[in-house]
Amino acid sequence: MSDKKKKKLSPVQQEYQQFAKDREPKRPILKNCLRAFIAGGIICTIGQFFHWFYMTFFNFTEVTAANPTVASLIILSMLLTGFGVYDHIAQWAGGGTIVPVTGFANTITSAAIEHRSEGYVLGVGGNMFKIAGPVIVFGVFAAFIVAIARLAVEALGGML
Amino acid sequence: MEKFILAFLVGGAICMLGQLLMDVFRLTPAHMTVSLVVAGAVLGGLGLYEPLIKFAGAGASVPISSFGNSLVSGALAEAERNGIVGVLTGIFEVTSAGISSAIIFGFIASLLFKPKG
User: Count of domains in chain B?
Assistant: First the structure.
Protein backbone atom coordinates (compact mmCIF):
# COMPACT_ATOMS: atom_id res chain seq x y z
CA MET A 1 0.00 0.00 0.00
CA SER A 2 1.39 3.40 -0.98
CA ASP A 3 2.08 6.20 1.48
CA LYS A 4 -0.45 8.45 -0.20
CA LYS A 5 -3.26 6.01 0.54
CA LYS A 6 -2.04 5.45 4.08
CA LYS A 7 -2.52 9.12 5.04
CA LYS A 8 -6.25 8.93 4.39
CA LEU A 9 -6.74 6.03 6.79
CA SER A 10 -7.83 6.55 10.38
CA PRO A 11 -5.43 5.41 13.16
CA VAL A 12 -7.50 2.27 13.73
CA GLN A 13 -7.33 1.39 10.06
CA GLN A 14 -3.57 1.97 10.06
CA GLU A 15 -3.25 -0.29 13.04
CA TYR A 16 -5.19 -2.97 11.19
CA GLN A 17 -2.98 -2.59 8.10
CA GLN A 18 0.06 -3.21 10.30
CA PHE A 19 -1.69 -6.14 11.97
CA ALA A 20 -2.54 -7.72 8.59
CA LYS A 21 0.97 -7.11 7.27
CA ASP A 22 2.58 -8.88 10.22
CA ARG A 23 0.40 -11.94 9.70
CA GLU A 24 0.80 -12.17 5.93
CA PRO A 25 2.74 -15.37 5.18
CA LYS A 26 6.35 -14.67 4.25
CA ARG A 27 7.13 -15.51 0.64
CA PRO A 28 9.93 -18.06 0.30
CA ILE A 29 11.84 -15.86 -2.16
CA LEU A 30 14.92 -18.03 -2.48
CA LYS A 31 12.94 -21.23 -3.10
CA ASN A 32 10.65 -19.50 -5.62
CA CYS A 33 13.63 -18.08 -7.48
CA LEU A 34 15.36 -21.44 -7.66
CA ARG A 35 12.20 -23.11 -8.98
CA ALA A 36 11.65 -20.32 -11.53
CA PHE A 37 15.26 -20.65 -12.66
CA ILE A 38 15.06 -24.42 -13.14
CA ALA A 39 11.64 -24.46 -14.83
CA GLY A 40 12.42 -21.47 -17.06
CA GLY A 41 15.76 -22.93 -17.96
CA ILE A 42 14.21 -26.28 -18.93
CA ILE A 43 11.57 -24.59 -21.12
CA CYS A 44 14.28 -22.55 -22.87
CA THR A 45 16.36 -25.70 -23.35
CA ILE A 46 13.37 -27.39 -25.02
CA GLY A 47 13.10 -24.25 -27.15
CA GLN A 48 16.77 -24.55 -28.03
CA PHE A 49 16.13 -28.14 -29.14
CA PHE A 50 13.39 -26.97 -31.55
CA HIS A 51 15.74 -24.20 -32.67
CA TRP A 52 18.45 -26.76 -33.46
CA PHE A 53 15.89 -29.05 -35.14
CA TYR A 54 14.63 -26.34 -37.51
CA MET A 55 18.17 -25.22 -38.32
CA THR A 56 19.41 -28.74 -39.04
CA PHE A 57 16.48 -30.30 -40.92
CA PHE A 58 14.86 -27.23 -42.51
CA ASN A 59 16.55 -24.27 -44.16
CA PHE A 60 16.24 -21.80 -41.31
CA THR A 61 19.08 -19.57 -40.20
CA GLU A 62 20.09 -18.72 -36.63
CA VAL A 63 17.74 -15.70 -36.58
CA THR A 64 14.74 -16.96 -38.61
CA ALA A 65 14.56 -20.27 -36.70
CA ALA A 66 13.21 -18.33 -33.69
CA ASN A 67 9.77 -17.98 -35.35
CA PRO A 68 8.93 -21.69 -35.87
CA THR A 69 10.47 -22.37 -32.44
CA VAL A 70 8.01 -20.01 -30.78
CA ALA A 71 5.12 -21.49 -32.78
CA SER A 72 6.08 -25.05 -31.76
CA LEU A 73 6.28 -24.09 -28.08
CA ILE A 74 2.86 -22.44 -28.36
CA ILE A 75 1.32 -25.64 -29.78
CA LEU A 76 2.98 -27.69 -27.03
CA SER A 77 1.71 -25.29 -24.36
CA MET A 78 -1.81 -25.34 -25.84
CA LEU A 79 -1.90 -29.15 -25.61
CA LEU A 80 -0.57 -29.15 -22.04
CA THR A 81 -3.10 -26.45 -21.06
CA GLY A 82 -5.96 -28.36 -22.69
CA PHE A 83 -5.11 -31.55 -20.81
CA GLY A 84 -4.79 -29.55 -17.58
CA VAL A 85 -1.09 -30.32 -17.07
CA TYR A 86 0.29 -26.79 -17.47
CA ASP A 87 -1.52 -25.46 -14.40
CA HIS A 88 0.12 -28.13 -12.25
CA ILE A 89 3.56 -27.21 -13.58
CA ALA A 90 2.80 -23.50 -13.07
CA GLN A 91 1.79 -24.16 -9.47
CA TRP A 92 5.28 -25.46 -8.80
CA ALA A 93 7.32 -23.17 -11.02
CA GLY A 94 5.69 -19.72 -10.62
CA GLY A 95 7.52 -17.18 -12.77
CA GLY A 96 9.38 -19.95 -14.57
CA THR A 97 6.24 -20.78 -16.54
CA ILE A 98 4.81 -17.24 -16.82
CA VAL A 99 7.83 -15.55 -18.39
CA PRO A 100 8.49 -17.88 -21.37
CA VAL A 101 6.23 -17.59 -24.40
CA THR A 102 4.47 -20.79 -23.25
CA GLY A 103 2.93 -18.78 -20.40
CA PHE A 104 1.56 -16.29 -22.92
CA ALA A 105 -0.02 -19.17 -24.90
CA ASN A 106 -1.32 -20.68 -21.67
CA THR A 107 -3.22 -17.51 -20.71
CA ILE A 108 -4.80 -17.29 -24.20
CA THR A 109 -5.75 -20.98 -24.32
CA SER A 110 -7.08 -21.15 -20.78
CA ALA A 111 -9.16 -17.99 -21.29
CA ALA A 112 -10.54 -19.43 -24.54
CA ILE A 113 -11.45 -22.78 -22.95
CA GLU A 114 -12.88 -21.20 -19.81
CA HIS A 115 -15.29 -18.89 -21.66
CA ARG A 116 -16.56 -21.32 -24.30
CA SER A 117 -19.77 -21.82 -22.31
CA GLU A 118 -20.64 -18.19 -23.14
CA GLY A 119 -20.60 -18.98 -26.85
CA TYR A 120 -17.92 -18.92 -29.49
CA VAL A 121 -18.26 -15.29 -30.63
CA LEU A 122 -18.78 -13.38 -27.38
CA GLY A 123 -17.26 -15.98 -25.06
CA VAL A 124 -14.18 -17.34 -26.83
CA GLY A 125 -13.62 -14.48 -29.28
CA GLY A 126 -14.26 -11.74 -26.75
CA ASN A 127 -12.29 -13.15 -23.83
CA MET A 128 -9.33 -14.82 -25.51
CA PHE A 129 -7.04 -11.83 -24.95
CA LYS A 130 -8.45 -10.89 -21.55
CA ILE A 131 -5.19 -11.77 -19.74
CA ALA A 132 -2.73 -11.66 -22.65
CA GLY A 133 -4.05 -8.31 -23.93
CA PRO A 134 -1.92 -6.05 -21.69
CA VAL A 135 1.28 -7.67 -23.01
CA ILE A 136 0.30 -6.90 -26.61
CA VAL A 137 -1.02 -3.40 -25.92
CA PHE A 138 1.98 -2.25 -23.89
CA GLY A 139 4.44 -4.14 -26.08
CA VAL A 140 3.15 -2.51 -29.25
CA PHE A 141 2.93 0.96 -27.71
CA ALA A 142 6.43 0.73 -26.21
CA ALA A 143 7.78 -0.61 -29.51
CA PHE A 144 6.16 2.31 -31.34
CA ILE A 145 7.73 4.89 -29.02
CA VAL A 146 11.13 3.18 -29.07
CA ALA A 147 11.14 2.86 -32.88
CA ILE A 148 10.16 6.51 -33.35
CA ALA A 149 12.78 7.63 -30.82
CA ARG A 150 15.47 5.56 -32.51
CA LEU A 151 14.55 6.90 -35.97
CA ALA A 152 14.56 10.46 -34.63
CA VAL A 153 18.02 9.99 -33.10
CA GLU A 154 19.29 8.45 -36.32
CA ALA A 155 17.83 11.33 -38.36
CA LEU A 156 19.57 13.84 -36.11
CA GLY A 157 22.84 12.00 -36.66
CA GLY A 158 23.11 10.80 -33.06
CA MET A 159 25.42 8.13 -31.74
CA LEU A 160 23.05 5.16 -32.02
CA MET B 1 25.92 -28.64 -26.85
CA GLU B 2 27.15 -25.50 -25.14
CA LYS B 3 24.25 -23.65 -26.83
CA PHE B 4 21.86 -25.76 -24.76
CA ILE B 5 23.65 -24.90 -21.52
CA LEU B 6 23.70 -21.19 -22.41
CA ALA B 7 19.96 -21.34 -23.25
CA PHE B 8 19.28 -22.98 -19.87
CA LEU B 9 21.32 -20.43 -17.91
CA VAL B 10 20.15 -17.25 -19.65
CA GLY B 11 16.51 -18.39 -19.94
CA GLY B 12 16.52 -19.42 -16.30
CA ALA B 13 18.04 -16.08 -15.27
CA ILE B 14 15.33 -14.10 -17.10
CA CYS B 15 12.60 -16.22 -15.47
CA MET B 16 14.23 -15.71 -12.08
CA LEU B 17 14.21 -11.94 -12.71
CA GLY B 18 10.45 -12.21 -13.37
CA GLN B 19 9.98 -14.16 -10.13
CA LEU B 20 11.95 -11.49 -8.23
CA LEU B 21 9.76 -8.74 -9.70
CA MET B 22 6.69 -10.59 -8.39
CA ASP B 23 8.07 -11.48 -4.95
CA VAL B 24 10.22 -8.50 -3.99
CA PHE B 25 8.48 -5.63 -5.82
CA ARG B 26 5.00 -7.14 -5.34
CA LEU B 27 3.95 -6.90 -8.98
CA THR B 28 1.05 -8.98 -10.28
CA PRO B 29 1.96 -11.50 -13.02
CA ALA B 30 0.38 -9.17 -15.61
CA HIS B 31 2.44 -6.17 -14.46
CA MET B 32 5.56 -8.34 -14.41
CA THR B 33 5.14 -9.60 -18.00
CA VAL B 34 4.31 -6.06 -19.21
CA SER B 35 7.50 -4.75 -17.55
CA LEU B 36 9.60 -7.46 -19.19
CA VAL B 37 8.08 -6.75 -22.62
CA VAL B 38 8.74 -3.01 -22.29
CA ALA B 39 12.30 -3.73 -21.09
CA GLY B 40 12.79 -5.99 -24.11
CA ALA B 41 11.52 -3.26 -26.44
CA VAL B 42 13.89 -0.67 -24.95
CA LEU B 43 16.87 -3.06 -25.13
CA GLY B 44 15.88 -3.88 -28.71
CA GLY B 45 15.81 -0.18 -29.59
CA LEU B 46 19.30 0.26 -28.12
CA GLY B 47 20.49 -2.72 -30.19
CA LEU B 48 21.39 -4.78 -27.12
CA TYR B 49 18.87 -7.64 -27.41
CA GLU B 50 20.03 -9.03 -30.77
CA PRO B 51 23.53 -9.85 -29.42
CA LEU B 52 21.90 -11.62 -26.46
CA ILE B 53 19.91 -13.85 -28.86
CA LYS B 54 23.09 -14.59 -30.82
CA PHE B 55 24.79 -15.49 -27.54
CA ALA B 56 22.08 -17.56 -25.85
CA GLY B 57 19.77 -18.67 -28.68
CA ALA B 58 16.40 -19.82 -27.36
CA GLY B 59 17.41 -18.70 -23.86
CA ALA B 60 16.80 -15.13 -25.03
CA SER B 61 14.19 -15.70 -27.75
CA VAL B 62 11.72 -17.83 -25.73
CA PRO B 63 11.12 -15.48 -22.73
CA ILE B 64 8.40 -12.86 -23.31
CA SER B 65 10.97 -10.01 -23.35
CA SER B 66 11.93 -11.09 -26.89
CA PHE B 67 8.35 -10.20 -27.93
CA GLY B 68 9.12 -6.52 -27.27
CA ASN B 69 12.42 -6.84 -29.13
CA SER B 70 10.75 -8.48 -32.15
CA LEU B 71 8.12 -5.72 -32.31
CA VAL B 72 10.84 -3.04 -32.39
CA SER B 73 13.10 -4.86 -34.85
CA GLY B 74 10.17 -5.50 -37.22
CA ALA B 75 9.17 -1.83 -37.08
CA LEU B 76 12.74 -0.62 -37.62
CA ALA B 77 13.43 -3.03 -40.52
CA GLU B 78 10.27 -1.95 -42.32
CA ALA B 79 11.02 1.74 -41.61
CA GLU B 80 14.39 1.31 -43.28
CA ARG B 81 12.68 0.16 -46.48
CA ASN B 82 9.55 2.33 -46.58
CA GLY B 83 10.30 5.34 -44.40
CA ILE B 84 8.46 6.43 -41.26
CA VAL B 85 5.16 4.72 -42.24
CA GLY B 86 7.03 1.42 -41.95
CA VAL B 87 6.85 1.73 -38.16
CA LEU B 88 3.10 1.09 -38.39
CA THR B 89 3.15 -1.49 -41.17
CA GLY B 90 6.09 -3.49 -39.89
CA ILE B 91 5.44 -3.66 -36.15
CA PHE B 92 3.88 -7.17 -36.28
CA GLU B 93 6.13 -8.46 -39.06
CA VAL B 94 8.39 -10.64 -36.92
CA THR B 95 5.91 -11.52 -34.17
CA SER B 96 3.27 -12.69 -36.64
CA ALA B 97 4.19 -16.36 -36.08
CA GLY B 98 3.71 -16.09 -32.32
CA ILE B 99 0.46 -14.12 -32.29
CA SER B 100 -1.29 -15.88 -35.17
CA SER B 101 -0.37 -19.35 -33.91
CA ALA B 102 -1.52 -18.39 -30.40
CA ILE B 103 -4.90 -17.23 -31.77
CA ILE B 104 -5.36 -20.20 -34.12
CA PHE B 105 -4.36 -22.92 -31.67
CA GLY B 106 -6.08 -21.19 -28.76
CA PHE B 107 -9.30 -21.29 -30.76
CA ILE B 108 -8.77 -24.94 -31.75
CA ALA B 109 -8.20 -25.74 -28.07
CA SER B 110 -11.51 -24.11 -27.16
CA LEU B 111 -13.21 -26.38 -29.72
CA LEU B 112 -11.51 -29.54 -28.43
CA PHE B 113 -11.31 -29.16 -24.66
CA LYS B 114 -13.90 -28.59 -21.98
CA PRO B 115 -13.09 -26.45 -18.91
CA LYS B 116 -11.97 -28.45 -15.86
CA GLY B 117 -12.90 -28.01 -12.24
Answer: 1
Q: Cα(first)–Cα(last) distance of chain A, in Å?
A: 40
Question: What are the CA-CA distances from residue A128 to residues A5, A109, A110, A155 (Å)?
Answer: 34, 7, 8, 40
Backbone angles phi, psi at A81, to 5 degrees: -65, -45
ipTM of the complex: 0.88
Query: Residue B87 domain-assigned?
Result: yes
Domain that holds residue B99: 2-112
CA A157 to chain centre: 36
- Partner-chain contact B113 A104, CB within 8 Å: no
**Interface contact B58-A149, CB threshold 8 A:** no
The predicted-structure confidence for B10-50, as pLDDT tens digits, reads as follows: 999 999 898 988 888 888 888 999 999 999 999 999 989 88
Decide if B106 and A105 are in contact by the 8 Å CB cutoff: yes
Q: Which one-letter DSSP state was computed for residue A100?
A: B
- Does residue B7 contact residue B58 with C-beta atoms inside 8 Å? yes
User: Which of B27, B50, B62 to substitute to test the interface with A, most A CBs within 10 Å?
Assistant: B62
- Other beta carbons within 10 angstroms of residue A49's beta carbon come to 16
Q: Is residue A32 less than 8 Å (CB to CB) from chain B?
A: yes
Residue B117 resides in a domain: no
Nearest to B102 by CA among A156, A101, A40, A13: A101
Domain assignment of residue B33, yes or no: yes
